[in-house]
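debug: dumping io for the single-chain case to check the tokenizer round-trip. Nothing else runs in this session.
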Amino acid sequence: MRSIGLTRLSLHNGVYEAAVTGLSEDALGFEAVVADQVIARAQAVLGKDGVHLLRVELPAHLIGSQPHIVDIRSEAGVSLDRFAVMTDAQVAGDLRAELDLLRAEFDLLKAAFRRHCSDTGAD
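debug: decoded output
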């Protein structure tokens, strides 16, 4: 069995694009799956240098206040890529707040480690 490689190129305006290597001509089909439901199907097309290009148009119902995890799979069910779709403004604020908390915690750990090193004479 051939090893399939996938490199995400972009996710813009609801269209997922990727470069796929290692495909055989009888295995060009792909699916976008959310919560074990197929939400879109697409066929890879041969591009230059033997690399196939995959374009999956994602449905508009993914855009909303609920986060969704999208799995890009071959028709054989092999998961090749996974990404989250989050669009709510509140989510962005929550992520920034979480990042600020992580930075503050990291600063505390750095200070404690430096204090420990100076107390024990370690470099």
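debug: round-trip ok. The helical segments are 89-120.
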